[in-house]
Every structure is written in C-alpha cells, then in structure tokens.
C-alpha cells in the first residue's frame, strides 16, 4: 500500500485510536448485533415485539452494565467501550439500544452509585445476566422536561413508604422485574417533600405497568407506564442518601452519553445503505449515484458522521479520564441525535419508494430517531442547557410575562 | 489431547475495500480473525471440552495481529504463540507453510488444524503444504470433526454426499466455516485473555533461509469483479416459451 487511503466509513480513522480492549469489545458487540439482533429487527418493528431472550443473550456476553466492577457483574470496561456497544446495537435498532441503555445506565448504574451494599448484592448480579429486567421512572404524563414538578409521592409510613402516582413513556416497564422510581418523599401529607429514589419490584401490591400500544417508533422495544396505587415500598428499597434531581440526572447523563454513541451507529447504517442503493439503482441508463444531487447528499452525510464520530469518541476519552462535564454530554446528545435524524430522513428519501418498506430498514431508523431525539432531554431542552452554560442565564422559565393562572 | 490451531489476521470483508489503479486499498483498519480459522478454533474448543486437553493457537503476522490472537484466547483457547513479522511483508501460502512447518518441527501434538482458506486471498493452500512438510496424514475442507479411539474422524461434504475420513493422530485438518458457528467472545473472556500465556518469537530468530521466506508467486494486479451480463426476457405463450428456452439451453448453452 503505497499511498494513504480514504476510509469511506471512518474518514478520520477514529477507530484506529481505540485501545485493544475497546476494539475487541466493539467486535463482540458487532458480531452479536449483526448475527442475533439484525434477523429479529424487521419482525420486531412490524409486530411491535421485543424478544425477552435478548436480555439473557446480552447478559451472557457481558453487554449489560459493562463498566461496573466484576463483583457486580461488569468487567470494568471503559466508558468508550460502553459507547461502542451502544453504537453497534443501535446500528441495528434504537429500540434494542434503548433496552441496553436503560438496563445499564438507568437501573444498574443508580443501584451501583446510590444503593446500599445489600441492594447491590440483591439486584446487580441478576441484572447483569439479564435474569432480571429493569426500568426507570422519572417522566410523568404532565411532567416531561420539568421533572422537578413531579406529582408522584412517597409518604412515610411504618417500615417504609407509600407510593402514589404514575410514570409515563417508560422503556421496558411492561416486562420489567425491577423499577427505579423517583418520587417526592414526604414525612407526612403536608410536607413539601424532596425527590428520592426507590426500587420497586413487579410483585408489589398496587403496582402495575400497562404497555403503551400503537407506537410508531421504537416498536422493537417495550414502552409503558408505571402506575402506583398505595404501593408499599419497604425502607430497604429506598436509596439511602441521594436527594433531589441530582439523582436521576446523574443516571440520565450516563444514558445520554450512550445515546450520543448509539446514534452514530444508526446514522452510519443509513448512510451505508443509501450509498449502496444509489450505486445499485439505475435510472436513465446510469446508477443514480452518478448524479450530483445523490453525491453531495452522501458527501454531507459522511461529513456529518465524521463529526458525530469524533464528538462521541472524544467525549468517551474525557469520561474515561474523569474530565467530562454534563454540558458536554448535552452538546453531544443534542448534536448527534438531531444529525442522525436528518441523515436517516435523507437516506430514506434517497431510497425512493423502496425506502418506504421495512425491508430496507432505513425507515425504521427514521421513526426510531424521532423518539431518540425527544427522549432523555429533547433537542431543544439540551439547547437551553447549553444556552444557560454559555450565557449564565436560565431560559427554562419564561420571564417577563405574567401568564394567566 | 493437544490441538494446535493456525490462525491468521485478515482485513474485515464487511468493511469497504476499494480497488484503485490495480492496487487493493484495505486501509480500513479493521482487521479480524479469519472466519474459517474461527471455525477451526471453535471445533478445537468443543473437542477438548469433550475429551480434555489443550488448545494452542499460532499466528504468523505483524505486531498488531496480537489483537487477533487475543480474540482466539477470549473464545477459550488456552495459550498462544505469536511469530512476529515485519508490518509490510508480502508472503504467499508457501512462505506461511514454511514458517509454520518449521515451528511445528520440534513440537508434540495430536492435531494441527486451520481454516480451509483465509479470507484475504482465498488460496486454500497453506494447510496441505504444512502437512506435506511434516509428512502428516491430512484432510481438507472438513465440515465436522470427532474423536474415536485416538483417531480423528473428519466429515467432508461433497456435491452428492458426505465422505468420512479416519486420520491417525498426529494429523492435520483444514476446516470449513460450515462446520459450526464460532462462539462470540464475552467481555469477561476478552478481559481474561490478557492474562493467558502468549509466547512471542521473532521470525528472524527462527533461522529460516531466504528462499524459504521468498514468495513463489506474485500478485500482479487487482480488478473489480466484472459486471453481470443482463438476462434475456421472452414473452409469449407458455408452450412456445418452454420450447424456446429448451432450445437455448440445448443448442446455445449446451447444458442439456
């Protein structure tokens, strides 16, 4: 090989910067995703079906909670490796990546970070093997971007807490054995309360988790509600020390970081499919890729993907060095979700009528990424987080307008 | 029993490979374990899990190929030998066979196995050449292996049936990827592979003479595969069409 070459999947060769461990973990995730998840994805999307065996398959390979220490079922993998797993899984379907993210970052991570030793021993090993499936409840029907105003309460009683309220848009909830729920904890009904985290289990009286049907997005993963009607949660299931929004936001930061990587996989898939399609498809006697419009679309996609790759890779490195900031995560999550969605839409368009069918698998990404752009902090809310960081002025609460009650 | 599995690092065939000016551009930086060798590793693991023994992998390649050795160790192989070469060597099957046969000369083993070919050149020659050098009984393109009374039983797939070959040990066999589905290494296996014994021998210390290390063949160029000719389309009544197609197959294509 005399001269340097241009890699049309990874132009700035970020993969060559990865450590040997990280590359090997990436390869395992890719082998698994391509051989075991890809064959299920079409049916999963058409029939709104998540095969629960995916949990134990991922668990067997160590893809769940990979960055936790070995005593709790992880392998002390790097944050970069966690991101690379998300990228390979989301290359197939954001729904599968959502399952993995929730289990790892929103269930195992908070138990590891905020739980008692007893809670860690009780739940983490079985969550790591996929024997138990977990979910995370923060968002409510009337409280999305503003979770601090949540209505779900936990009122103190003898030996535990009584939970009332409902959580909505909860990935995994209908199939979950364990749920992390955030509620306003009150000593009595009149107390203003402060946010605390609780571990609920599916067998608790008064707890139900109905599935959300007719989703047009993330159809290969389960979504539902968490409904609490006088649910007694014993003291030993409460996180002992963490108070306020810092708890859920710490978990979300970890999951959002994974999303910044996951969307790289989805965007790469769509770009590669579009590239293949325009070179195969002939109209007017030539491949449509011989025309200027498809070529510049591909050029724009690859330029955007390169930026997404480098952002995700650099953020992973900063996280591994303990130098990350939550606004870096907002920047990467916002940019990569928005850009991936744009790329998926253009790739769908480039497939013409064929792009409408599920067979080409691009429209699934378009639909999925609509959710991914919205959940875990919408595109606009992350813009406001960055705006506040830049100006030191919050713009979440509109000021200067007296709104009618 | 002692299994030696020869493995090779090859460019990932799923990564984009471009041909420019007759040169192969495979600078994708994605190098992987040859899929046929992965099947050989898998089968060796299955047989030693059943009958006891040890699996050692041997790789001839540059420093960066260590990652591929780790993959085989992560799958479950017990130990490894890495015969290190320069980065830019251009060896053909004969050279690889010379190196490996020299390595095996003073080793004890029951079975040497490898993929029936490697995905970079698909030559499919090294296995047979090693067996010839070592004067071992050998079988190629096996789709199944078993052990019976100290013999290795290799199942080969032909067009019209299967052939079962009994090989006295020590012997050599090359493996088809139809043999099994190689296990995906778990993250735990990947981390543990760092602690498994890996011996590194520099090729330059093996005292091979220059002729043994010079390629006997030379690749003169690479070409894209030719585009397929478009098919012919006939319209008309079924009877006429059948007659027409039959004539074509008979007279023009000579297949009937």
Automatic annotation (TrEMBL), chain A:
InterPro entries according to UniProt: Acyl-CoA_Oxase/DH_mid-dom, Acyl-CoA_Oxase/DH_mid-dom_sf, AcylCo_DH-like_C, AcylCo_DH/oxidase_C, AcylCoA_DH/ox_N, AcylCoA_DH/ox_N_sf, AcylCoA_DH/oxidase_NM_dom_sf, Glutaryl-CoA_DH_mitochondrial
Record's keyword terms, sorted: FAD, Flavoprotein, Oxidoreductase, Transit peptide
One GO molecular-function entry: glutaryl-CoA dehydrogenase activity
Entry-linked SUPFAM superfamilies: Acyl-CoA dehydrogenase C-terminal domain-like, Acyl-CoA dehydrogenase NM domain-like
Top-level lineage group: Bacteria
Presence of keyword Transport: no
Domain Acyl-CoA dehydrogenase/oxidase N-terminal intervals: 19-131
Pfam families referenced in this protein's UniProt entry, alphabetically: Acyl-CoA_dh_1, Acyl-CoA_dh_M, Acyl-CoA_dh_N
Domain Acyl-CoA oxidase/dehydrogenase middle: 135-231
Domain Acyl-CoA dehydrogenase/oxidase C-terminal: 244-390
Cofactor(s) listed: FAD
GO terms, biological process: fatty acid beta-oxidation using acyl-CoA dehydrogenase; fatty-acyl-CoA biosynthetic process
PANTHER family: GLUTARYL-COA DEHYDROGENASE, MITOCHONDRIAL
Family: Belongs to the acyl-CoA dehydrogenase family.
Protein name: Acyl-CoA dehydrogenase
Origin organism lineage: Bacteria, Pseudomonadati, Balneolota, Balneolia, Balneolales
From TrEMBL, chain B:
Superkingdom assignment: Bacteria
Basic and acidic residues: bias regions: 224-236
Keyword Glycoprotein among UniProt keywords: no
Xref: Pfam families: ETF
Region of interest: Disordered: 215-238
Domain spans labelled Electron transfer flavoprotein alpha/beta-subunit N-terminal: 21-210
Keyword line: Electron transport, Transport
Gene3D superfamilies per the UniProt record, alphabetical: HUPs
Membrane spanning residue stretches: none
GO molecular function list: electron transfer activity
InterPro entries: ETF_a/b_N, ETF_b, ETF_beta_N, Rossmann-like_a/b/a_fold
Protein's name according to its UniProt entry: Electron transfer flavoprotein subunit alpha
Organism for this UniProt entry: Fodinibius salipaludis
């Amino acid at each position: 090989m005399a001269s340097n070459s241009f890699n049309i999947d990874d132009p700035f060769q970020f993969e060559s910067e990865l450590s040997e461990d990280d590359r090997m973990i990436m390869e395992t995730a890719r082998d698994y995703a391509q051989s075991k998840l890809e064959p299920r994805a079409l049916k999963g999307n058409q029939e709104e079906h998540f095969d629960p065996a995916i949990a134990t398959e991922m668990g067997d390979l160590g893809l769940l909670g990979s960055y936790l220490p070995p005593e709790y079922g992880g392998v002390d993998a790097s944050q970069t490796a966690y991101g690379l797993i998300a990228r390979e899984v989301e290359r197939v379907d954001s729904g599968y990546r959502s399952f993995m993210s929730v289990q790892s970052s929103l269930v195992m991570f908070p138990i590891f970070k905020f739980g008692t030793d007893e809670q860690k021993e009780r739940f983490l090993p079985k969550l790591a093997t996929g024997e138990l499936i977990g979910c995370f409840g923060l968002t409510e029907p009337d409280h999305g971007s503003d979770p601090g105003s949540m209505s779900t309460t936990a009122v103190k009683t003898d030996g535990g807490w009584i939970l009332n309220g409902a959580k909505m848009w909860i990935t995994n909830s209908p199939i979950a054995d364990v749920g992390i729920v955030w509620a306003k904890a009150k000593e009595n009904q009149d107390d203003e309360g402060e946010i605390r985290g609780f571990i609920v289990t599916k067998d608790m009286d008064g707890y139900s988790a109905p599935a959300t049907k007719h989703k047009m997005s993330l159809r290969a993963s389960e979504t539902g509600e968490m409904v609490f009607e006088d649910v007694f949660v014993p003291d030993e299931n409460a996180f002992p020390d963490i108070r306020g929004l810092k708890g859920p936001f710490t978990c979300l930061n970890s999951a959002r970081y994974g999303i910044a990587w996951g969307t790289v996989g989805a965007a790469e898939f769509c770009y590669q499919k579009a590239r293949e399609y325009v070179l195969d498809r002939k109209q007017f006697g030539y491949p449509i890729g011989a025309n200027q419009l498809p070529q510049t679309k591909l050029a724009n996609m690859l330029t955007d993907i390169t930026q997404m790759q480098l952002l995700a890779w650099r953020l992973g490195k900063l996280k591994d060095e303990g130098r990350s900031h939550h606004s870096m995560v907002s920047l990467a999550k916002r940019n990569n979700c928005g850009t991936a969605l744009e790329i998926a839409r253009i790739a769908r368009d480039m497939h013409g009528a064929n792009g409408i069918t599920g067979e080409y698998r691009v429209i699934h990404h378009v639909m999925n990424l609509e959710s991914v752009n919205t959940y875990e902090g919408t595109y606009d809310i992350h813009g406001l987080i960055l705006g506040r960081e830049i100006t030191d002025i919050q713009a979440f609460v509109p000021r200067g307008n007296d709104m009618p009650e | 029993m002692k299994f030696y599995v020869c493995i090779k690092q090859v460019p990932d065939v799923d990564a984009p490979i471009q041909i420019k000016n007759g040169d192969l551009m495979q600078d994708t930086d994605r190098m992987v374990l040859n899929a046929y060798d992965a099947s050989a590793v898998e089968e060796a693991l299955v047989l030693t899990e059943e009958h006891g023994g040890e699996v050692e992998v041997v790789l001839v390649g540059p420093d960066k190929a260590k990652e591929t050795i780790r993959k085989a160790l992560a799958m479950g192989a017990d130990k490894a030998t890495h015969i290190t070469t320069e980065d830019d060597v251009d060896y053909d099957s004969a050279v690889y066979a010379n190196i490996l046969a020299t390595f095996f000369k003073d080793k004890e083993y029951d079975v040497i196995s490898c993929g029936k070919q490697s995905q970079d050149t698909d030559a499919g020659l090294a296995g047979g050449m090693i067996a010839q050098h070592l004067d071992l009984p050998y079988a190629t393109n096996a789709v199944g292996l078993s052990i019976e009374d100290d013999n290795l039983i290799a199942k080969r797939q032909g067009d019209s049936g299967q052939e079962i070959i009994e090989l006295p040990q020590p012997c050599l066999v090359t493996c088809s990827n139809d043999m099994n589905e190689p296990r995906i290494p778990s993250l735990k296996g990947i981390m543990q592979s760092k602690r498994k014994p890996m011996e590194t021998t520099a090729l330059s210390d093996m005292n091979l003479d220059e002729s043994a290390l010079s390629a006997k063949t030379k690749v003169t160029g690479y070409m894209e595969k030719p585009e397929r000719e478009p098919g012919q389309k006939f319209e008309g009544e079924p009877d006429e069409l059948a007659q027409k197609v039959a004539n074509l197959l008979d007279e023009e294509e000579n297949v009937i």
